[in-house]
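BUG: 3D viewer hangs when loading the predicted structure for this chain

Environment: internal workstation, default settings.
Expected: structure renders.
Actual: progress bar stalls at 90%.

Input used:
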Amino acid sequence: MSKKFETKLVTAGRNKKWTHGVVNPPVQRASTVVFDTVAQKNEATMKRQSHTLFYGRRGTETHFAFQEAMVEIEGGVGCALYPCGAAAITNSILSFVEHGDHILMVDSCYEPTRDFCNIMLKKLGIETTYYEPSIGEGIRDLIRPNTKILFIESPGSYTMEVQDVPTLSRIAHEHDIIVMLDNTWGAGVNFSPFEHGVDISIQAATKYIVGHSDVMLGTAVANEKHWPQLREQSYLLGQCVSPDDAYTALRGMRTLSVRLKQHEQNSIAIAKWLETRPEVDHVRHPALPSCPGHEFFVRDFTGSNGLFSFVMKTSNKAATTALLDTVHHFSMGYSWGGYESLILANEPSSFDNMRTVSNPHFEGTLVRLHIGLENVDDLIEDLERGFAAYNEALQS
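Structure tokens produced before the viewer hung:
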């Protein structure tokens, strides 16, 4: 039976073997699973890799329901769970590399991903080469005989560059390189990773899947070739999550489609309003032509969400502080993907540490917004107050 995507989000993971006759899979908490006979224990041991109750760290039926749902939504054959998005990234990489290997990492990656490469992987004797997000076919020139992983994040953190994922994946596979994607922005809804050549799709489910800023959770969905190794290596690294968190994420999934559509509608309205502001140099929203890689967004994505950035014409810390301190509906806070609006700012000098080969060399401050589910008029009025304070500080 075929299902449209909105229907999948409502029905995924609701197999009767997990729900036991109720709408939502119950929260099943367990560390020890007990067996009545040796035969039962032996059977569970043999099937421990295939959604069978064996030991708490292998998961309970609550985890199995969420993992099954993630596979139905994103594709692939299996889903590993982690206590946060950063853990999903680091453990996915660690599951496939060893001393002497080399990885290719996009230069616009999530800052903790960069720190992990520069500190932990370096200590383990694994070398990282950063590449420009728009490199495309040029990625060939960076591949070495010992390159094991090509890591993509599209759009990029803060600067929002959209990458040519099919081209990068095709070239990587020509050299038997594993393609990993941080698909948090796409949320498994707006970008279908396995249709574009990705081997392992990683998400901070903390963001849009949970959707309410109250759970830390990471996922990695793998294709048939790489699922067994990801599953077993992650288990060896001790990764597991609370069944309550898995339940909350599964509940959040049910409204993911309608929430994303509203986030998208609100963010595009505000992005277009920002384009009219005299203080703004340009807006970096993947759905707008001013964003680097917009042509790949149009080709590969089915929609956007609430996260984007804009660049001011000037850089003035006092003025930026005035803007941030004045807005009310926009809170300053890390993460994103919840129902609330957020704001963060980066002065141009910060990219000296955040970039290796593709520093954008902004002249003005970059402001990243997450547009929540509030009324757009209220949010625009809030930003207007912020800009007024910004301009007043510039003149003082």
